[in-house]
Amino acid sequence: MNGLRAVVVCLVIACTAVVSPAAAVAPSWSALPVPAAAPPVTVSDLAARGPGEAWATGYERAADGLRPMLYRWDGTAWSRDTTFPGAGESGRLGKVQFVGDDVWIFRSGTEAGQILRRSAGGWSAVPLPQTLWTYQDFAAVPGAAWVVGEDDTGLKVLHYDGSGWTTQSTPDGVLVLMGITARTATDAWAWADTSTGSTVLRWDGTAWRDAKVPLPPNSNVHTILLEPSGRVTIGGSQYTEGAVRTYLMTWSGLGAWRTTHPPLGDTYTGTMVRGPDGALWLPVRSDRAFQSKYVRVNGSRTAFSYGPERTDTIDVKPRALARTGWSSLLSFGTVEIYGTKPNLMSERLGG
C-alpha cells in the first residue's frame, strides 16, 4: 500500500511540474493608455501587422461636426496620427487594412469618399469616382479594392484594380451588400440582403455569384473571416423560437459547411478574429460595469475572460480586436467613467 501511495505521489508531482509553469504564465488582459480624443468617440476598426504595428480608426465630435480619428500602436505605446490627408477636415475613418507593405484606410466625408494609403514615402489618397450617400464597407488586397454602398439609383459595387475604377454588377435580387472582405484579387466574399433573405456572394475574378452557403433560416450575417489556409468562418444571428441566437459556420474549402450555436445569446460577431491560440475571439456584452468581457470559442468549448478592473467606470466596450503576432491579442474601444462621456481605451491579452 505504501508503495502504491509513493507511486501516486510521484505521478502528482510529475504532473504538477509539467502543468504549473504553463499555468503560471497564463496570459491575462492588461490596460494600455490611449491619448484622449474629443468625446463621445466612435471606434470603427483595428488592424495589426504584428506586435510592433497596429492602427485604430474612428471619429470624434468636434465643434463643427465629426472629425476623423487615427491612432498607431508601435509595440510600446499608442499615439495619435494627424498627418494623413484630411486630418483636420470633417469626416470619418472606417476600415483599415494592411496591403503588402502599405496601410490602406477608407475615409468618408461631406464629399466623395477616398482610400488613404500610407507607404514608406508617406500618405497619399485615391478618390472614389463618385459620391455615395451611404458607404457600407471597404476591402483591399494586393491588386484590388472594393467599396460598396448606395446612391440614389441603388446598390453600387466600386472596384479598383490599381489604376482605375469600374462598377461591378451583382446577381438579380440583391438589394444591398452589408459587408465585403477579400483574400486575393480573385477571391472576395460579400454578405447581402436579397428579396428572399440573407445570402453570401463570391467574386471569382470574373463575376459576383451566389456562393450557395446554406445559411440558417431567418438569419443574417455579421462578418466573414477568410484565412490563408482556405478556411472560411461566418458569424451571424438567427431568429428562432421567439429569440435571437448567435451562430457560427465554418468551411475548410472542401466538403460541407459546419454550423454551431455557441452559448452567446445575441452577441454581435462582427469583431471576431482568429487568435494566436487557434480559437475564435470576440468581445461580448459584459455583466460587470467596470470590466470588459471577451469570449473564446474553440470548437464546442466556450470560455470567458474579463479585462482589468477600472475605477469609477460605468461602461467598458471593446469595439475591435486584432491578433498581434503569435502571442497576443489587442483590443480597442471606449470606456465611460462616471460623470464623463465615452472616450478611448485599449487592452492587450498576452505580451
What does it look like?
The protein has 351 residues and is mostly beta strands. It has one helix and 28 strands. The chain has one helix at residues 2-24, and strands at 29-32, 42-50, 53-62, 65-73, 78-80, 92-99, 102-108, 114-119, 122-127, 134-141, 144-151, 154-160, 165-168, 174-184, 187-194, 197-203, 208-210, 219-226, 232-240, 243-251, 258-260, 273-274, 280-283, 293-298, 301-306, 313-324, 328-337, 343-349. A hairpin with a 5-residue loop joins strand 7 (102-108) and strand 8. The protein starts with a helix and ends with a strand. Residues 1-26 have low confidence and may be disordered.
Q: Tags for this entry?
A:
mainly beta, four-stranded antiparallel sheet, 1 helix, 28 strands, disordered N terminus, single chain, globular, 351 residues
Strand order of the largest sheet: 1-28-27-26
Order of helices and strands: HEEEEEEEEEEEEEEEEEEEEEEEEEEEE
Globally, the shape reads: globular
Biggest β-sheet, characterized?
4 strands, antiparallel
What's the number of extended β-strand segments? 28
The radius of gyration over CA amounts to: 22 Å
Could you say which structural class the secondary elements and strand pairing correspond to?
A: mainly beta
End-to-end gap: 47 Å
DSSP helix fraction: under 10%
Count of alpha and pi helical runs: 1
- Mean pLDDT, to the nearest integer, reads 91
Beta strand %? over 45%
Poorly predicted runs: 1-26
